[in-house]
Design brief:
By secondary structure, the chain is of the alpha/beta class. It has helices spanning about 15-20, 40-50, 60-65, 85-90, 105-110, 135-145, 180-190, 195-200, 205-215, 225-240, 245-265, 270-275, 275-285, 295-400, and strands spanning about 5, 25-30, 35, 55, 80, 100, 125-130, 145-150, 155-160, 170-175, 200-205, 220-225. The protein is elongated.
Amino acid sequence: MPTLLIIRPSNRPQQDIQTCHAAGWQAQVLSPIEIEADRSALKKLPEQFKQADVVFWVSPTTIETAVPYLTFSDGPKVHITVGQTSQHTLAQFSPYPAFSPKDGNDSEAVLRMPIWKNLPPNARVLIIRGHGGRDFLADKLTELGFQINIAEIYFRRPHAIDWQNFKTEDIAAAYVTSGKLAREFFHQIPPQFSRFFESLLYFTHHPRIADALRIVGAKHVETVTSLSAALSSILQRSQAVNPVEDNKDTQQVASTAASAPERSENTRPSEQIKPTQPQRVEASMPESNNLPQNNAPVIIKQSGGKALAAGAIVLALLGLGASGFLFVQGQNVLKNQELEFNQKIDKAALGESENASLLKDNLNRQTAIQAELDRLNNGQKTIAIKSCKRRKLIKSCSKAVSTGWSTKPNRC
C-alpha cells in the first residue's frame, strides 16, 4: 500500500489518516512543530469573547484550543471561520451559525466576504489565533472602522522528528499544512534523506505554502483544495503515465468483442482455418441440414461473445487500477535507487576528499623535511668555510714563525 506523509502537528492527524485509509492509502504523520497552549492568554479569553460582536477563528486548532474555556452562553455573535474545515469544527461546539468564504481559505478571502458590509462600522471584532499570526485582516478591518482585539492563545514549538527507524520505501508524496511547518521540516531533514525529500512530490492547500516549499528546496509542488483532492491527483497522474498501454488494452477488448460475432456467423471455427473444408461437408450433408434451423446456435454464440467482451472490459479496468499502484511502486523503487546511488557518490566524494587531505599533509611534511635538510646543508657549508679559513690562518701563522717574521714599527 502506498504511503502519504502528513506534515502537521500531532494534535490533528486523525481526520487526515481516515481520509487516506478511505482512499486506499497508508498515512504517516511527521510533526516538526507542536502546539503549546498559552495558559495566560486563555484565562483572559472568556472576557474578550464576551465583549466581542464578531469572532474570527483562524484554524481548527484555534477552535479546539479555545473551546474548553468558552461557554457560548453570552448571546448570539457573528462567527466567521477561515475555511470550511474550521466551519465544520466550530459547528460541533457552537449552537450559532458560522460563515466562511466560498472562494478561498485565507485572510484575503475572508476580507472579500459580503458579511462585513452588513455589520456596523464600529463593531468589535475578536481575532483568535496563535502567536506570530498575520496582521493582514486586522489592519484591513481597522481601516474599515472596526474595533479589533486579538487573542493569541497558543505557541508553535519546534519538535524533533525521530529519524532512527524512518524508511523511504512506499512513500509516494507528502501533504503540508503551513509554511512554517515546511521550513522547520526541511531544517530537520538528515543529510542521507535530503535528495529524497527534494525530489518528492508535495501537495498543499495554499499558494503561499507552495512558495515556502519551493524556497526550502522542494522541486515538485502542487496546490490542491484539500487532502482528498491531493489523493485524486496522484491517481490521475498514475493513470496518465501509460496511455499507450491503456489504448492497447482497449483495442484488444474491442477486437475480442468483434471477433466473437464473426465466429458465430460461421457454422464452425474450423471453417475459418480451412476454407476448402466446408465444400466437402456441404456435399456430403443432406439438404435437411441446410434449413434455417441453424440460426439458433448463432444466437447462442453471439450472446457468449458479448459476455466475453464484457469480461474483457472488466479485466481491462482492473488492470488499469493495478497499473496506477504499480506506477507508484515503480516511482518508489526509482527514488530508492537514486538515493542509494547518490549516497554512494557522496561516500566516494568523501573518500576522495580524505585522500586529498592526506596527500596534502604528506606534501607539507615533505616540504618541511626538505627545508630542514636545506638548513642543515647550509650549516655544513658554513662550518666547512669557517674550517677552511681557520686552516689557512693556522698555515699562515706557522709559515711566519718558521721564517722568523716579526712586526716592526715604521719609522717616520
